[in-house]
Amino acid sequence: MLFNSLEFLLFFPAVTLLYFAIPARWRHIWLLAASYYFYMCWSPKYALLMLFSTVVTWRGGRVIARADALPEGKRRTRFRKGALIASVTANLAVLTVFKYLTFILENISRAAGLVGLSFTVPAIGLLLPVGISFYTFQALGYTIDVYRGDIDAEPDILRYALFVSFFPQLVTGPIERSGSLLRQLRAEQSFDGARVRAGLVRMGWGFFMKMVVADRLAWFVDTVYNAPEGQAGSAVALATLFFMFQVYCDFGGYSNIAIGAAQVMGVKLMENFPRPFLSRSFRDYWSRNHVSLSTWFRDYLYFPLGGSRKGKARMVLNTMIVFVVSGLWHGAAWHFVFWGAVHGVCIAAGRLTLPCRKKLRAALHIPEDGALHRAVSWFLTFIMLAGTYVLFRANSMHDIVTLFHAMFCDFRLSALAGEKLYAYGLDRMDMLAALISLAVLIAVDLLAERGDLLGRLERKPLPIRWAVYLLLIFSILIFGVYGPEYNAAAFIYFAF
Prior knowledge:
Elements lengths: L5 H16 L2 H17 L6 H22 L5 H41 L17 H17 L8 H9 L12 H9 L6 H33 L7 H32 L17 H4 L5 H12 L9 H19 L3 H19 L1 H11 L6 H23 L3 H13 L18 H21 L4 H6 L3 H18 L17
Helix pairs in contact: 1-2, 2-6, 3-4, 3-5, 3-6, 4-5, 6-7, 8-9, 8-17, 8-19, 9-15, 9-16, 11-12, 12-13, 13-15
């Protein structure tokens, strides 16, 4: 079931109304049933994988809790580590088989060919289950948290199953921490009109980002990136710019809908995309972009590897490991690995050169918070990020070479002149709608950067609030991309 579908438009109000109508002791069971129904609308059989992950990680937490009651010694340590290793291994094995097995076998076949051997990749025919990377990481985080002693093991398997499958953030995050979400799922939530209204407005903004901005920009992006041969560099550059905002509005839109839907039911999810394109460094970007994933890797991979505590060389190595794994998490293809490695290099280089850059600014009397420094650092970061988005969107390593060659060797502004601009999937009216919606998006982000925009809206007089609400609704209805010829466009990160 897609958020931007008629089914969800009926599903969400029905689930929410009944949630507040039934006794509190039954609510987690009702949400669990609704969450599994929500997931099974894609494929009922793949819900068994989520159930497997749930049982394994819940059982692992219970074994660790029982081991904690044993006297200090090797037996206690063995039980605790054994439960953790079994939980992590079982979940990563399932993720590997369904997401990476074909990629692994294809690379074995290529390597065999290089040494004169023949290996034919068998036809496996496994589909990538929707959201498997997200709920697997969320469940693994729980087991690790119990092992570390950050939280107590959850005794109720049904409540824990809801933690893994909570439908607003089930298939594309945010990847929640066990300590936060489990605590909220145990609490008795009451109906709050102001909270519900704020959640619905948040959902509306998410629908605007997805249906008005992302799905429209996708036409131009797909036209260029799916046929890179012979494209002018100017078209590639514009498609890349559009793709940056397509991904932001697609994934950020999903996160806003998820956060808003959870807020309606009294659950607060973490912010996931707090205006990433206002970043002034790659490190700043990863504190704003897909925050739930970047902090997951920080807490469960970077810090356990030693972080930056063991010298600069180890910091660089740990950073590269994290970002290469992050690239592989995003997709089973070498261009994703390359994308992650480039981000790792930029993060590590930024940290290593920080003392030199501070000295240079001091020598030139350029204040760090000055307008000039902020503008230049933002511009350079944005341009470099745009280059990495080519790596992310390209369909292959060969296409990456083709696209960069076009931008640097065959730019041709004439390819976008006049009516030629409308030959890339967007006609005159759609291009105008895309540019206006982008201007609205940027304006909202700039205003939100100055503080709680929704809170400021809530303090406005009633006529102004309702004018904004109605404008948002009509924008989605009039300019949203939907209908029989388009269907409901899936979210990009469903593939991850």
